[in-house]
């Protein structure tokens, strides 16, 4: 689990990022989880936007994605989800304690 201080740090780091993936009408599927899992291993921190035509609730989408890729939900703001997962090989972010 991330502490409040770590979440604040990650939110500030994610502020300038653009959404990398979009969740649309089809919702979350295995292929999307696999692709996001590979991408988050490289980036550690990413934004995912939820399109207007998505049938699922944004908290459901965030929950499914975070469980699917083993990432932490940093923030859900508007229709954007911010996910963080510590990278095994490409560690870039050093979290505050």
TrEMBL record:
Segments traversing the membrane: none
Name of the coding gene: yhbY
Pfam family, one: CRS1_YhbY
UniProt name for this protein: Ribosome assembly RNA-binding protein YhbY
Gene source species: Rossellomorea vietnamensis
Coiled-coil intervals, chain numbering: none
GO MF annotation list: RNA binding
Domain CRM: 1-96
Record's keyword terms, sorted: RNA-binding
NCBIfam families tied to this protein: RNA_bind_YhbY
